[in-house]
Amino acid sequence: MLLAVLASASLSLAVKTSSQLISLHEENWIEIMKGEWMVEFHAPWCPACKDLQKAWNAFADWSKDLNIKVGEVDVTVNPGLSGRFLVTALPTIYHVKDGVFRVYSGPRDKNDFITFIEDKRWRNIDPVPDYKHPNSKQMAVVAVFFKLSMAVRDLHNHLVEDKGIPSWASYSLFAGVTLALGCILGFFIVLIIDQVFPTGKKSAVQPKKDTKKDSNGGTKKGCVKFSSHLRHIMSCSGFSVL
């Protein structure tokens, strides 16, 4: 009897997930580029996210009346999206209008969300700059690094928890791999630079001398040429020339 009461109490306390709440992931997140959206980034282990869950689901029930869509992203399952959106705190909420992103930082209650949309208060928030736009190339690169870091963490947990390898050995392994990859990458960078900008010295270009061939096939230097001109001028002026 007591177990039945506890079970019913736990069910009543459980938050009902709204049928209008859209789960976003790596494959379908691009849908938020069209129309108006409110998107929450959360994690199962986050206490603040759990506190927001009830209000967020209630807000999602109003999405059709507000002519918007309400979505959620689990960052533990989609690390690439947390990188694209530079999520550094949880929960993080974005307002999206036709591909323009704004970070929502107001009160987090159902009525506050509804008022935010109805009164178009998002107009008072500066959009995310272009270099941080989630659909930009640079943020796609950041997403790859977030995925890579998550993969490394999962591999570390697998080695320590499943294989029984000591933590220091796992860290040493990753440090060695990182050092080796850095050396290989540095070698190729130096090789490319050496091919594009060769370091060999070119032979110096010899200055061209002012010479003139004489009647005998020889050459006269510039000073001899100047002397002959001087003699001609002096003879025309009435001076005797030796």
From TrEMBL:
GO cellular component, one term: extracellular region
Location(s) in or outside the cell: Endoplasmic reticulum membrane; Mitochondrion membrane; Secreted
One Pfam family matching this protein: Thioredoxin
UniProt keyword annotations, A-Z: Disulfide bond, Electron transport, Endoplasmic reticulum, Isomerase, Lipoprotein, Membrane, Mitochondrion, Palmitate, Phosphoprotein, Redox-active center, Secreted, Signal, Transmembrane, Transmembrane helix, Transport
Signal peptide interval: 1-19
Name of the protein: Thioredoxin-related transmembrane protein 1
Taxonomy, superkingdom: Eukaryota
A GO term, aspect molecular function: protein disulfide isomerase activity
InterPro entries linked to this entry: Thioredoxin-like_sf, Thioredoxin_CS, Thioredoxin_domain, TMX_domain-containing
Domain Thioredoxin: 1-122
Major localization listed first in the record, in broad terms: endoplasmic reticulum
Subunit field text: Interacts with ATP2A2.
Topology class, membrane: Single-pass type I membrane protein
Ranges that cross the membrane: 168-193
